[in-house]
Amino acid sequence: MERFLSEVLIDSQNGGGESLIGTIKIAVLPTAKVFTVCFLGFLLAYFKLLPANGRKLLNGLVFSLLLPCLIFSQLGQAITLEKMIEGWFIPFNVVLATISGSLIGLLVVSIVRPPYPFFKFTIIQIGIGYSAWCMLGSGLGSSWNC
To answer: What is the largest CA-CA distance in the chain?
Structure first.
């Protein structure tokens, strides 16, 4: 984290990229908007301005439609074509690690033979765990090759 912040400070001093305050603003604003919507929902529930059915419907609408729109509209300001071209390998590595982890999970399931209700769950958990392990290893810059 310290290395990232120092690079941001150096880039902003050299005139390239955004300032540190701009970067923090891009990171904090979506979260602040989410908390604002959650607080408004709390107020509606606390003062019983909506019946229970209305709150349930509004809750589904907010969490499935409005919050993702808030987050992605803010992220859209930070993502440019240059950044997408520069980071093309990230989604490729995530998909590759998830597929290889799922294949390892399939191998483990064929050896261990868990009960039927846990068959898919085991494969998915091993796939996600392996991809997280690969991302953690690559992020640490160590010799954990996946």
So the answer is: 59
> What b/e string do you get for 50-89 counting C-beta neighbours within 10 Å, with b at 16 or more?
eeeeeeeebeeebeeeebeebeeebeeeeeeeeeeeeeee
- Give yes or no: residues 70 and 98 share one domain: no
Q: How many separate domains does the chain show?
A: 2
Q: What is the pLDDT of residues 66-103, one digit of tens each?
A: 878 877 776 777 777 888 888 888 888 888 888 999 99
pTM of the model: 0.48
Domain that holds residue 120: 89-140
**Domain annotation covers residue 84:** no
Q: Is the pLDDT of residue 16 over 70?
A: no
In a domain, residue 146? The reply is: no
For the four alpha carbons of 14, 18, 22 and 23, in that order, the dihedral sign comes to negative
- Structure-model confidence comparison of residues 102 and 7, the more confident one: 102
Residue 70, both tokens: 């808030």
